[in-house]
TrEMBL record:
GO biological process terms on file: regulation of DNA-templated transcription
Name assigned to this protein: CCT domain-containing protein
Gene Ontology cellular-component terms listed: nucleus
UniProt subcellular location: Nucleus
Keywords: DNA-binding, Nucleus, Transcription, Transcription regulation
Region spans: Disordered: 1-22
Domain of life: Eukaryota
PROSITE patterns found in the cross-reference section: CCT, GATA_ZN_FINGER_1
CCT domain sequence ranges: 14-56
PANTHER family to which the protein is assigned, alphabetical: GATA TRANSCRIPTION FACTOR 18 (PTHR46125:SF24), GATA TRANSCRIPTION FACTOR 28 (PTHR46125)
Taxonomic lineage of the native organism: Eukaryota, Viridiplantae, Streptophyta, Embryophyta, Tracheophyta
Major subcellular site: nucleus
Signal peptide range in chain numbering: none
Length: 142
């Protein structure tokens, strides 16, 4: 009887607000879905070792070293001219990260993860600070 009437008057308003919410949700997630599928495709194509991403040169290097038995035969190591570098923040080897990135100490001083965090932190702090320096601008473009 009387208790049903207020519920019925709220229903159209509730339906309208739910529809608005659903439309906004579709718009909000649309770009993220596209970005995610692209990232997913890249992640599926990347080679892994024990679940972690590895560069293709690290795998070919392991195969070459296993077949040569660490004898160091000429022509077996293409990456000899690229020296191994450690991340100045976390200490991980450059052979265990997809790429080395620019950090506060210069190019190829941070691993991929630390470099991205540092660049993001620099870009965010740059918005707050009025005076901007050139190295920070270069780092944000990475």
């Amino acid at each position: 009887g009387l208790s049903d009437f207020p519920g019925r008057s709220i229903q159209p308003q509730r339906a309208a607000s739910l529809n608005r919410f659903r439309e906004k949700r579709k718009e909000r997630c649309f770009e993220k879905k596209i970005r995610y599928t692209v990232r997913k495709e890249v992640a599926l194509r990347m080679q892994r070792k024990k679940g972690q991403f590895t560069s293709s040169k690290a795998i070919s290097e392991e195969v070459a070293s296993a077949s040569s038995g660490w004898s160091g035969t000429p022509g077996s190591g293409q990456d000899e001219n690229i020296q191994e570098v450690l991340c100045t923040h976390c200490g991980i080897s450059s052979k265990k990260t997809p790429m080395m990135r620019r950090g506060p100490a210069g190019p190829r001083t941070l691993c991929n993860a630390c470099g991205l965090k540092w660049a993001n932190k620099v870009c965010l702090s740059q918005e707050r600070v009025v005076h901007k320096s050139i190295p920070h601008l270069i780092a944000c473009r990475l």
